[in-house]
Amino acid sequence: QVQLVESGGGLVQPGGSLRLSCAASGVTFGLYAMSWFRQTPGKGRDLVARISRDGGSTNYADSVKDRFTISRDSAKNTVFLQMNSLKPEDTAVYYCSARREFSTGILIGSDYWGQGTQVTVSS
User: Quick count: other Cβ atoms within 10 Å of Cβ 38?
Assistant: First the structure.
């Protein structure tokens, strides 16, 4: 059974920081690209950040560049999203996603999803 479990969400004031974690099980972690998406009622689910299977490549939505950092720990089968300088517009449910990376930049198979964790940025 493939399972992704997010944690670390919560309430934070603008300018604050949070670190989200996503623990993966049921997969060979090193074969999967990992991503963070976020969903708001008005904008749907959008890609926030992605990291390649080996951690050698990352990409970010323009709205979070220079503020968010995605990383992964192969020993813990966990991907992280460090969120700094948070803004109210970052408020969303954040989802972890995993998809098999067959070779560099080529994703195949099912896209697995976690249950989501709420991030609220408010004063």
Answer: 24
Please, what is the average pLDDT of the chain? 96
pLDDT at 108: 96
CA-closest candidate to residue 75, choices 121, 43, 39, 29: 29
Q: What is the CA radius of gyration of the chain?
A: 14
- Residue 78 φ/ψ region, left for φ over 0, alpha for ψ in the -120 to 50 degree band, beta for the rest: beta
How many angstroms separate the CA atoms of 101 and 7, rounded?
24
Q: How many CB atoms lie within 10 A of CB 71?
A: 15
For 28-41, the pLDDT digits (tens) are: 999 999 999 999 98
What three-state secondary structure class fits 65?
coil
